[in-house]
Amino acid sequence: MEMFKDAVSWVEIPVSDFNRAKEFYSKIFDYVMPEMKIGASTMGILLYDQTSGGIGAAIVKGDGYVPSSAGVKVYLNGGRDLNIVLKRVELAGGKIILRKTEIAPSLGFLATFVDTEGNHISFHSPK
To answer: How buried is residue 32: exposed, middle or buried, by Cβ count under 10 Å (0-12/13-18/19+)?
Structure first.
C-alpha cells in the first residue's frame, strides 16, 4: 500500500449564491478572494501556499454542487489561534454552532460554524 503525505489533495465547498458566499469567506479570512471559471462552474479560491505544496480549497457554484449540513466534514486552517477568524463568522452572516473547543492538549482546537450557504464547516488551530 502506498502511503501518501496528505489524505486530501483539494476541497470544494458547494455554494448556491456565489457572490454571497464569496463575500462571507472574504470577510472571515480578511482578503479579496480570487475567482476562476472552470467549464460552467465558478470557483472562489481560499488562501493557501500553493508554491510550497499546500493543500487548497475553493467555494464552487455549478451543476452538482449542493450545499448541505449533512455532507463531508471539512476543517479549514484557522491559523495559529482560530479565535481571530472565528470572531468574523457572525459579522459576515454565518452562525457559530460550536465555540472554540480543545480537542486534546497535543491536537489543538476546533470550532464549527454554518456558512451563508448552510454548510457546516470547522476551523482547526494549534492554540
So the answer is: exposed
- The model's pLDDT over 8-22, given as tens digits with 9 standing for 90+, comes to 899 999 999 999 999
User: Tell me, what's the pLDDT at 1?
Assistant: 83
Q: Which of 124, 100, 101, 98 is nearest to 112 (CA)?
A: 98
Q: DSSP per residue over 58-115, as a string?
A: EEEESTT----SSS--EEEE--S-THHHHTTTTTTT-EEEEEEEEEETTTEEEEEEE-
- Distant-in-sequence, close-in-space partners of 110: CB < 8 Å, separation ≥ 6: 75, 82, 98, 100, 101, 103, 122, 123, 124
Q: What percent of the chain has pLDDT over 90?
A: 88
**Residue 43 cell numbers, joined:** 470557483
Overall fold of domain 10-125: 2,3-Dihydroxybiphenyl 1,2-Dioxygenase; domain 1 (3.10.180)
Pairing outcome for strands 108-114 and 95-104 = antiparallel
Q: Which three cell numbers stand for residue 40?
A: 460552467
